[in-house]
């Protein structure tokens, strides 16, 4: 088409434009209607949903951790409390660059690579938005000052104060009180997720573990308004947490200290029981360790040192250590013999220094070469700890009766009311041997059991319990640690206890008491060393338990044996004899002689408990 | 036509020429300025809450508004014919500046948008192009027979694609969409045949995968997030989820001015800029939202009236494009905040905080007023 024919036609062009403009306007109004429809949908139809979401956004129910109950001894000495501790935490969402922040922090205070690694592990586990993850615990004042000065350039790093469990007496009480530690993944599955939503620690061992429900308390909560960064703006509503209950134990920390000191440098255990209350007065296992180290997580080097130590300090010998009870078992066997009628007060045995069964060429030796003489009765056998008499008695009693009597005193069973992890030891019987060893029972087994050797083993706690029941003339003692929970109607825990030991002739008790008294208070008694200057009468029995069997025809040579192969020294006893108040069991590993090593320790405990200690030492030691 | 002519003639004869300053004032369209003042005043009230009652933000925004009104007033005085004459130089200069931005511009968050030329305040050349592109296309097509032939159409498209491409490369997706729309509106209003439109739309849809391929990662994220905000509720989806909660929780009457929890507790990002409609929806509810929508529709209607009654094809095309582009602002912004469109940086016109885009907008209104008031002069 030639160029000149290109004439604009204003009218058609305008009509075209107007048409397009009107189409556009229709579209505009349709789109506007779409936006309004969207607003109707969001604001009117879905209003409730979004209003809820909005409230959920800003209002959070925030749990408030309860304070853990304190633990005291019977005199109010603090054994476990809570102390403020400052922890460096990192909120990753608030950090501009997490890696940079960690590097910066390492430049300001000392943070080990291990702490970083642990933090990274926690970070991967935690999915919660804006949660604060601990990086370093137990900040010192100096570290806090350094962090405060540099705070402005460390967004995302914060210092949190939290209450951390503290054991002022550390090693002295660890085996009894136990310790708390960070809740691990296995424990998470068992605990109430609501009650423990803000609790970081849980009782791992000892009283802390057993009385966890009493000590923990109830979680509180507060409704808070938070902004998008998780900062709390104000509290709308609050339900206070219920603090955990305080616990008072029967433990007497002065006695505990005496026992601890007496065992210093040795391996062994002491258990002392107050007969009237069944309360545990002292429970010491040496060596011990510091439970405080476990509260915020022990470093692996220290842990491995503890774990790999030959002295196994983390092992509570008092309730978990099983030892052959040795001669300490003799009073129980003797009483059984009397009650079963296989011997009388007048029954006598000739002791050439060995005992032999018919049809058995084996010699069962007495500890004393040459024996205890031509006529040994039960009393003399107790006083001098004559093995031959008890070989004979055991044979007459038989394993079945022996087992039944000893079981009634708690051997081979659980005794302690309120500590986890108690070992049972072994009270051997025909069926036990058949089941575990697969062989039938021999008379020789009976003889060895009769002097507390062979298959027989017991814990220091079992020995102390049996001794306490014995001192209580058969009325069962069930040892326990919890004395009271002040201010709470906490029902004192009861577990079915053994029936009392009832014997046909109560005079047998007097006979046995007198015999045991003469162990300590007669010139030939094995425990005479501790009776000489005693202000009260003590009944007791020494024991020496072989660690390694001595082969036939071999001589016992203490010097030649390695220190750890030496005999264990034992002592059980109670005092005062006329009205027994306290029963004690002492085991000193490789201590060799019950009379010279174990008995003096028991004496110290008797003195500590029965004698007026004066006000100075009774003063609750709360300053520590 | 004849009838109108007769009607207008005595009208102008009876009127005495106005004195200088008053004549200048008379160029202002009263309806339009009333609506604009109402909307921007309402916007300031919402902004006061959205900006946490921060006085410095309020002072800055008020000064921007004042400056924008001055710009509008000045542009209302300029005869559209001058604009048409300036179309090519404006466009060429603007394009060169866009190239300069890509070479030596600066900005934040990985986008180069600003240009600093010694002696004048720093500015965004893309703002200039918001007006330069429709002026250029309108001027070019107004000289041709309408509907335009394919050849002129192709050339017009080049006028659009070049600046849009340069701006998208900054990258500034929001602005490039607005500028592209303003140019395409001119072509649409110029009467390009429906057949070509249909082909273009089909081609556009077909090229979507290609566009997807060209998009940057964060842009793809935004599209994916629109389709399913829950896929990343704390990251890319956060804005959309929170703005929907803000709007939805407002209900019919809203939580009350200054009482929005979503905005004041920082759940809502960008509450005083791109997401201000969510603050409005939360605090003033559906009624407040409806009020603002009505104002926008009235402004669009007034603009459409000016376009329909304007003299000359250039004026009509330009006025129509400015009006429709204004609505695109509104639609894209509210659409993205209410979760209908992907998130692109487009402010809510006259309400969101921001200086440069406000001045450009008001310059556009100034041109509209100029077109309206210069209409009868051509016939005098």
Fold and architecture overview:
The complex is a heterodimer of chains A (624) and B (380). Chain A contains 23 helices and 22 strands. In chain A, the strands form seven sheets. In chain A, strands 2, 3, 4, 5, 12 and 19 form a six-stranded mixed sheet that branches. The radius of gyration of chain A is 37 Å and the shape is elongated. With 380 residues, chain B is mostly helical. Chain B has a domain at 85-214. Chain B is globular.
Q: Whole-number radius of gyration of chain A?
A: 37 Å
Could you say which structural class the secondary elements and strand pairing of chain B correspond to?
A: mainly alpha
CATH class of the largest domain in chain A: Alpha Beta
SS element count, helices of chain A = 23
CATH-assigned fold name of the largest domain in chain A: Beta-lactamase
Compute the separation of the termini of chain A in Å: 111 Å
- By DSSP, the count of extended strands of chain A is 22
What are the segments of chain A in which pLDDT stays under 50 over at least 5 consecutive residues? Answer: 1-5, 550-554, 614-624
Strand content of chain A: 15-25%
Span between N and C termini of chain B?
15 Å
Which term fits the overall shape of chain A?
elongated
Describe the biggest sheet of chain A? 6 strands, mixed
What's the mean pLDDT score of chain A? Answer: 87
Structural class designation of chain A:
alpha+beta
In short:
The complex is a heterodimer of chains A (624) and B (380). The longest helix of chain A has 36 residues, at 10-45.
Task: Using brief descriptors, characterize the structure shown.
heterodimer, A: 624 residues, alpha+beta, Penicillin-binding protein 2a (Domain 2), Beta-lactamase, six-stranded mixed β-sheet, 23 helices, disordered C terminus, B: 380 residues, mainly alpha, 0% strand
